[in-house]
Amino acid sequence: MFQYAAGRALAYRHKTDLLLDARMFQRYALRSFELTKVFNIHSRVATMDEIKNFEVAPGRPAQFLVENIDLLPRGRALDVAMGSGRNAIYLAKMGFEVEGVDTSREAIEEALERAREEGVSIQTRVEDLEKIPYFDEEAYDLVICFNYLQRSLMPQMKNWVKPSGMLVYETFIIDQVQFGKPHTPDYLLRYNELLNTFRGFRVLRYREGVVEGRKAIASILAQKV
Ligand SMILES: C[S@@+](CC[C@H](N)C(=O)[O-])C[C@H]1O[C@@H](n2cnc3c(N)ncnc32)[C@H](O)[C@@H]1O
Fold first, then answer.
1. What is the pLDDT of residues 141-175, one digit of tens each?
2. 42 near 20, Cβ under 8 Å?
3. How far is the CA of 72 from the centre of ligand 1 (A)?
4. CATH number for position 195
5. 107 in ligand 1 pocket by Cβ < 6 Å?
6. Terminal-residue alpha carbon distance, the chain
7. Which domain holds residue 11?
8. Mean of the pLDDT values across residues 89-99?
């Protein structure tokens, strides 16, 4: 009963009519941000783990990006450590000309396939960011990076943004250790670290802390001035 209620609540939040089988729901979420389908009734309701998995389904764009989309200048966008493309594809759908970079060829191929399925086009590069690959300086209206922390790359990321362009960065802070991975301090932001890193940019949005009771993150949207 509790599971059913939780499923209904989640379904309502995502404007679906029913959440009946989280596997189907998640599979659909991989392919589409607009969750408007009604699913057929299956033999059981979703477990809480399945519901949680849905919440982090790789096909859904980051909430912080979606919430702030209207502030972002349209044009060329670069998704750093793009993964399988949830944010890149979302930006392409929103009219950006998107490039994505990641070290994982498999992730890039998945992103390209999803982009094809979604009817949008993205450019991709397989690169090891630890080697600080070359991207044109001041060429991007928007640079984004989600769930990836490489402190040595921060100066380049700032350079890649055009004057008046914007940067959106979100990743885990040290309080994440209470929820699970990542544990290594190298991959966790210190308090206020993003604010300090992008000092010199104009900070339009910033948040830091526990989100949805399950992850500790910092998110920034800053404009190059
Ligand atoms: C947690 S995923 C985040 C993916 C995406 N930004 C998102 O939020 O859905 C981290 C990504 O960083 C990529 N990555 C890790 N080390 C990298 C490196 N040295 N160079 C480029 N990409 C790297 C991984 O392949 C993976 O796709």
1. 999 999 999 999 999 999 999 999 999 999 999 99
2. yes
3. 22
4. 3.40.50.150
5. yes
6. 53
7. 6-223
8. 98
pLDDT tens sequence across 202-218: 999 999 999 989 999 99
Nearest Cα to Cα of residue 152 among 173, 129, 170:
129
Assigned domain for 87 exists = yes
Q: Which atom of ligand 1 is nearest to the CA of 131?
A: 19
Residue 50 one-letter amino acid? E
Split into its structural domains, the chain has a count of 1
Atom of ligand 1 nearest to the CA of 58: 9
Nearest-CA residue for ligand 1 atom 16 is 103
Residue 1 lies in a domain: no
CA 186/CA 189 separation, integer angstroms: 8
The answer to whether the CB of 64 falls within 8 A of the CB of 170 is yes
- Interatomic CA distance for residues 157 and 197, integer angstroms: 11
Q: Ligand 1: does its nearest atom lie under 6 Å from the Cβ of 102?
A: yes
Task: List, for residues 119-143, the tens digit of each pLDDT value.
Answer: 999 999 999 999 999 999 999 999 9
C-alpha 100 – ligand 1 centre gap (Å):
11
pLDDT of 183 above 70: yes
